[in-house]
Write a structure and sequence with these properties.
about 10% strand, globular, 7-stranded mixed sheet
Length: about 400
């Protein structure tokens, strides 16, 4: 090695702990009620901002047809109350989900509202999914309702189990036969979050747990955050698909007019833009292949410097998943990468809030932005190596 790696880590980890403390204060002030979420730091970067990899929305941005529909809606619908039943939007989503009954769908103010509603109509223990970490909003809602939270392998009976497919942040994907086996082997209601499943390709709906409603009835609830595939988090657009009985129970406690006229118009136009979806499916796979190659080159460059630092992707994650889950050798390495991202205008998601402090999630963006990020990470390590060489620890 060109430098004693352990001496390097000593120098690197000291400032990291200070930065980490400040970061925790910032995150707690932004999210006083629960876990940190990506997409919050890009504005603070100012003119440095290039691309936001801390989020996993569609890198193409919203459909132009959908944006045009929202602009038209602003002129017409702003002075009127939205359709409280979101009838036309539910009809459009039923078409997109390949189901024949819009009464099986309830729309809401993003998936977050529907996460709250689905948990509230269930009882009993809350069981986590089978992965080392998953999107934490479900667990936060369970804790806020004083529910007992148990791990996936607990022998205790659960009233509700949540499975994210594909799982965020790790990118693991549970197939439909595996979902069916899970329903057969465990008791209670299952909430399947399929917010990223539409990225799979033109036949994605065939792989949805919505297809199991006929067999398992009210035990199945499927949530979609449409802000991901249609890149519209600012509009807040989500839905849950389940039996009419479950829908009626949630409607009873849902806040009226929770889905705005703009969001409804956006959903209708997005469903109608098939060309946008074709471009999305091609883009994610093509860009991800290029980015994974760039990640391999970063590892090779770091190793050539004599550093045993590795950014290891989750090879179990399918190519269509719109992010790369990366495990590093240490929390200090992960934090260094986060700092590099912010300094070069490409924020990334540190998975410490998921309990995985040595891991990162990189949303798929233009490969040029990823190249900028990886160059900045390499430069950050080189700078720390030079710092360590200039200031060796005293013996």
């Amino acid at each position: 090695r060109s430098l004693d790696y352990f001496r390097f880590l000593i120098v690197m980890s000291t400032p990291a702990s200070i930065v980490d403390a400040e970061r925790r204060k910032k995150e707690d002030s932004v999210f006083p009620s629960g876990g940190f979420h990506g997409g919050q730091s890009w504005k603070a970067l100012g003119e440095r901002y290039i691309a936001d990899m801390s989020v996993t929305t569609n890198a193409l941005g919203p459909s132009q047809k959908a944006l045009d529909a929202v602009i038209a809606s602003l002129r017409v619908d702003t002075e009127h109350y939205p359709d409280a039943q979101a009838s036309d939007a539910r009809e459009a989503l039923a078409k997109f989900l390949c189901i024949g009954n819009k009464k099986l769908i309830l729309m809401g103010n993003g998936a977050s509202e529907l996460i709250d509603l689905t948990i509230r109509i269930t009882t009993g223990r809350f069981r986590l999914g089978p992965y080392p970490a998953q999107y934490s909003e479900y667990e936060r809602v369970a804790h806020s309702g004083n529910r007992e939270v148990i791990p996936f392998d607990s022998p205790l009976a659960a009233g509700v189990t949540v499975v994210i497919r594909p799982n965020s942040p790790t990118g693991d994907f549970m197939t439909l036969p595996e979902v069916r086996a899970l329903l057969d082997s465990k008791e209670g209601i299952f909430i399947f979050d399929e917010s990223f499943l539409p990225f799979m390709g033109p036949n994605w709906a065939e792989h949805s747990a919505v297809n199991l409603l006929g067999q398992y009835g009210s035990r199945v609830m499927v949530i979609h955050s449409w802000t991901k595939i249609w890149s519209c988090p600012g509009l807040r657009l989500g839905s849950v698909t389940t039996t009419e009985e479950n829908i009626a129970r949630m409607e009873h406690i849902q806040v009226p007019w929770s889905c705005s006229a703009l969001a409804q118009r956006f959903a209708i136009a997005s469903v109608d833009d098939g060309e946008y979806m074709v471009k999305t499916w091609a883009m994610v796979r093509r860009w991800k292949v290029l980015i994974l190659h760039e990640l391999e080159c970063l590892n090779e460059d770091l190793h050539s410097l004599g550093l045993s630092v590795t950014f290891q992707r989750n090879e179990n994650s399918p190519l269509w998943v719109p992010w790369i889950f990366v495990t590093t050798d240490s929390e200090a390495t992960a934090l260094l990468a986060v700092e590099a991202g912010e300094e070069c205008g490409v924020p990334i998601r540190w998975c410490r809030s998921h309990g995985l402090a040595a891991s990162l999630r990189l949303g798929i963006r233009d490969p040029d932005a990823h190249e900028t990020l990886f160059r900045a990470i390499k430069a950050k390590f080189v700078a720390r190596m030079q710092q360590a060489a200039a200031h060796p620890p005293a013996h």
